[in-house]
Design goal:
This protein has one domain: Metal-dependent hydrolases (TIM Barrel), CATH 3.20.20.140. 45% of the residues lie in helices and 17% in strands. The chain is built from 11 helices and 8 strands.
Length: 263
């Protein structure tokens, strides 16, 4: 493996540049990303208002910025009885264009959100919308891999990425078998060995993506700090070490995967 990597060509497939912890410094954050060698970022809009802001930001630098929009489990829970109205508004916004993906959407059983059947009921129509618009999907999943895989089997026309993947090699194989990509972030750097490391090794290079989930999950050696897209280079180096691959090769491969999926 190559140890040095001064100017990698990297793509952060999942960040929240409109988050309050980043929004007021977004120009500086992006400058640091481009200086670190990133050639693209996808900012995620969670909920309708955030999605509009994400689209406006992406439109300010269309050569390097992409955006996605969806009603994630937290936004869906916050909407409560207003979810049908939120879904209608989100559908109208996505149909206007300007988005590279639908998401993040998915299931979260880790936090005290809606019951599993309610989460599934709110996920299905968003997958239908993604297929209708022929857009890839950004999936959020915590403690719900089996249920999510079952839902995805009902939507074979959908494609995309399981963001912030933290599952086992067996769970990774399930998603890979359904045609999905896996994105790894700073969580991968927190423990050298274990089920997640095994999953990262097992994923075919053509299905690998990198992300930060900024402003969350800063990688080692920056853990505990506010995360930024520029920090994705640390996750790259860790991933390359786990897989025994050249870091420049892996940067180029994951970036090509990102452009192919999100063009």
């Amino acid at each position: 493996m190559s140890g040095g990597l001064s100017t990698p060509r990297l793509f952060d497939t999942h960040c929240h540049l409109t988050h309050p912890r980043l929004r007021d410094e977004v120009a500086e954050v992006c400058t640091r990303a481009w200086e670190a060698g990133l050639v693209g970022c996808m900012t995620i809009g969670t909920g309708v208002a955030d999605a509009r802001e994400a689209r406006a930001l992406a439109g300010s630098d269309p050569g390097r910025l992409r955006c996605a929009a969806g009603i994630d489990p937290f936004s869906a829970h916050a909407a409560g009885d207003r979810f049908p109205d939120e879904l209608e508004a989100m559908g109208a916004l996505l149909r206007e264009g300007g988005f590279a993906a639908v998401g993040e959407i998915g299931l979260d059983y880790h936090h005290a959100l809606d019951p599993a059947p309610v989460q599934a009921e709110r996920l299905h129509p968003q997958l239908v919308l993604a297929a209708e618009l022929d857009l890839p999907v950004v999936l959020h999943v915590r403690d719900a891999h089996a249920d999510l895989a079952a839902i995805l089997r009902e939507h074979p026309a959908c494609r995309g990425v399981v963001h912030s993947f933290t599952g086992t090699a067996a769970e990774a194989e399930t998603y890979l078998g359904l045609g999905w990509h896996l994105a790894f972030n700073g969580i991968l750097t927190y423990r050298r060995e274990g089920p997640l490391a095994d999953a990262a090794r097992a994923c075919p290079v053509e299905r690998l993506l990198l992300e930060t989930d900024s402003p969350y999950l800063a990688p080692v050696p920056l853990r505990g700090r506010r995360c930024e897209p520029a920090m994705v280079a640390h996750t790259l180096r860790h991933l390359a070490g786990l897989r025994g691959e050249d870091a420049v090769f892996l940067a180029e491969a994951t970036t090509a995967n990102a452009w192919a999926l999100l063009a």
